[in-house]
Design a protein that fits this description.
Subcellular location: Bacterial flagellum basal body
Number of helices: 2
Keywords: Bacterial flagellum, Cell projection, Cilium, Flagellum
Strand content: 25-35%
Oligomer: single chain
Family: Belongs to the flagella basal body rod proteins family.
Number of strands: 20
Structural class: alpha+beta
InterPro entries: Flag_bb_rod_N, Flagellar_basal_body_rod_CS, Flagellar_FlgE/F/G, Flg_bb/hook_C_dom, FlgE/F/G-like, LlgE_F_G-like_D1
Largest sheet: 7 strands, antiparallel
Function: A flexible structure which links the flagellar filament to the drive apparatus in the basal body.
């Protein structure tokens, strides 16, 4: 059987995976805190035809996906005017706790800062995960004793007391920000959440925004870093690559048909 046919099959599979990655990026173009993925290929094994010449004579046997990476470049910021909408203006992640798990289990990272305050005073994500402070504790905001509250760039939650109008740090600390050693090694688990892995360093290094050398913006959200122009360009490249590999298979089939006709 012709080697070119198998090479074409491997190429079609890879470009199909590339289209899958692009399709997921485009579907999340308006997802808060989403980070796009990119895919890279590498050549497969090469068959040695002869070593009698000055240089090796080899024929490649196709391609394979080498990596699918997450691009953690910051997305654009959108002003919402909602005080509990937060954005990290630099590197780092918010840390949230699954209410059904016992710490340190069930802790995840996210860049989606569309938080709300529950009736019990917990600062939570859209899925109900509790946001943690720099000490790893859940954040409670007792709104009954404060006329209003705001969040500054260091991550302090400042409340104005009803009794005397004085400002007070509601949580006695700062909103937690984690800075893993290798963000590209984080594992996506859905819901705009990431899970620590050995590749990411295992230690999430929970601290404050200052510790992570960044700031927290209140009343704004970080949008997806997907660039539609770039994605559509990559889609065209993937489509043409798929068609070219399909043509390789078709041509190989025509050659085999000619060989079969030789006996006639």
């Amino acid at each position: 059987m012709l080697r070119s046919m198998y090479s074409g099959v491997s190429g079609m599979k890879n470009f199909q995976t590339k289209l899958d990655v692009i399709g997921n990026n485009i579907s999340n173009v308006n997802t808060v805190g989403y980070k796009k993925s990119t895919i890279n290929f590498q050549d497969l094994l090469s068959q040695n035809m002869s070593s009698s010449g000055a240089n090796p004579m080899q024929v490649g046997l196709g391609s394979v996906t080498s990596s699918i990476n997450v691009n953690h470049n910051a997305g654009s910021l959108m002003s919402t005017g909602v005080g509990t909408d937060l954005a990290i203006m630099g590197d780092g992640f918010f840390v949230v706790q699954d209410p059904k798990a016992t710490a340190p289990a069930g802790q995840y990272l996210t860049r989606a800062g569309n938080f709300t305050v529950t009736a019990a005073g917990d600062l939570v994500t859209a899925q109900g995960y509790k946001v943690l402070n720099n000490a790893g504790n859940t954040i409670k905001i007792n709104a009954s004793t404060y006329s209003s509250f705001s969040i500054n760039r260091e991550g302090q939650i400042i409340g104005k007391k009803i009794s005397d109008g004085k400002d007070e740090n509601l949580i006695g600390g700062l909103i937690g920000v984690a800075a893993p050693a290798n963000p590209e090694g984080l594992s996506k688990i859905g819901g705009s959440l990431y899970q620590m892995t050995a590749s990411a360093g295992n230690d999430m290094k929970l601290g404050s925004a200052t510790d992570a050398k960044t700031e927290i913006g209140s009343g704004m959200l970080e949008m997806s870093n997907v660039d539609l122009t770039e994605e559509f360009t990559e889609m065209i490249i993937a489509q043409r690559g798929f068609q070219a590999n399909s043509k390789t298979i078709t041509t190989s089939d025509e050659i085999l048909q000619e060989i079969m006709n030789l006996k006639r």
